[in-house]
Amino acid sequence: MLGIGKMSEQLIIFDTTLRDGEQSPGASMTRDNKVQIAKSLERMHVDVIEAGFPIASIGDFESVQAVAHAVKHSRVCGLARALDDDIDRVGEALKYANASRIHTFIATSPIHMKMKLRMEPDQVISNAIRAVKRARSYTDDVEFSPEDAGRSNQEFLCEILEAVINAGASTLNIPDTVGYNLPHEFGSLIHALRERIPNSDKAIFSVHCHNDLGLAVANSLSAVLNGARQVECTINGLGERAGNASLEEIVMAVRTRQDIFSCDTNLDTTQILAASRLVSCITGFAVQPNKAIVGVNAFAHESGIHQDGVLKNRETYEIMRAEDVGWNKNRIVMGKHSGRNAFRTRLKDLNIEFDSDAQLNVAFTRFKELADKKHEIFDVDLQALVNDTAQLDNERVRLISLKVCSEIGKDSMAIITLLIDHEERHMQMSGSGPVDATYKAIKKIVKNDVELRLYSVNNITSGTDSQGRVNVHLEKSGLVVSGQGVDTDIVIASAKAYINALNKILASVDYASSPV
């Protein structure tokens, strides 16, 4: 994997979940979250992991640095504008990476150059050349992106890309930054650039497509058919605005249609589902049931005609095996009689490991508590439980008890006790429902001016005893964070989600001294 540039018919997978994926409002990740996801991507054999944008904040710098320390087999990349300070910051963050890449970019479309950069085209080319040369002083693996290439003049693209190859860029990434292109024209663009740029054979062509028109995957695949040999994508299609090209869809389309594609990835696709669920748990962005590859209905058959066909021969209605992307037909994995070793072993199978026995003990205790409430324990229950347990570390606000009362025709009542900076506080409030009353009580205790921007509920499995996962987005002074809570009681899950998001706000650099 470290010699990826020499593998002519390998399709390089460049995952930007930790960078572009995190730019989804409310999808912010902690340093530990990023390391956890990076290790999952490494187990999948992802070639390049874009860990973040180090100049953006101290937290982002430290996250990229932590991923660079933790990852040993995948190449770790950091993003930088075509500015000296940006590039130096990435170089510092990746200093101890086993294999590093600096990804630098500058806008090239007429509207971006005029309205955003306020630069003439020759200034843009000069800045791009200088940025690539400076990046080469830190690593011999430099990627250059002409931002908004999908709306850029083709002649200008040829000029700037030829120049940055001469300056030392070994990967040229062509982004459809605003998701504007259609598959036939984007594929034609890649073909034209490869044909027209004299030194194009000295670089790998990459693509980074956004999903504003729902065409990110189609555009990416069209580019691959026209010679692109790297695709930039994210788990679950996470990303800014409507998202990015979905890693799982790109990889499985190429793998399934080897009659069409003359390249393939080196990914261990059996790790896809675990990575999808991990990213969903951490970000709070639920995967829609009919999502290709990783949605719960992706391999489900309800129609009698379909069921009959699949029972006779799976290939009548399934073009790939569920097991090949990580689905397990043996859904029930644990119960209340399961022991600690079985619990640890099953979590290890799910790529979940603990740093200490103390962490294992806390998670095992919560597993036993769940097993007493819920008859069937599934893998997704275990993943949600471990993620929920991890949120308990370093909390300033913690839920101690909650009692609610609802009656037809009357306001609901919530009585809550929170532990705040080691001091118990109590509050009773009424509301239009139990969740509304609970949130009013929390706000009354904490006295922190936050606004609820999103509240959603999803069941993790089926059945009335299923755990519910609640996702919330809270905003304070422009900072939007996500919070997740899991419990068999949806009101308790709601309280956990709100408190989880509140703790992230209180832990942020700008709000570390916020009164509670």
Architecture overview:
This protein is of the alpha/beta class. It is 39% helix and 20% strand. Helix 1 packs parallel to helix 2, helix 10 (272-283) packs across helix 14 and helix 15 runs parallel beside helix 16 (490-507). The chain is globular, with a radius of gyration of 24 Å.
Brief rundown of the structure:
The chain has 516 residues and is an alpha/beta fold. Helices cover 39% and strands 20% of the residues.
What attributes characterize this protein structure?
8-stranded parallel beta barrel; globular; 16 helices; 16 strands; 3-stranded antiparallel beta sheet; 516 residues; TIM Barrel; alpha/beta; 3 domains; Double Stranded RNA Binding Domain; disordered C terminus; 39% helix; disordered N terminus
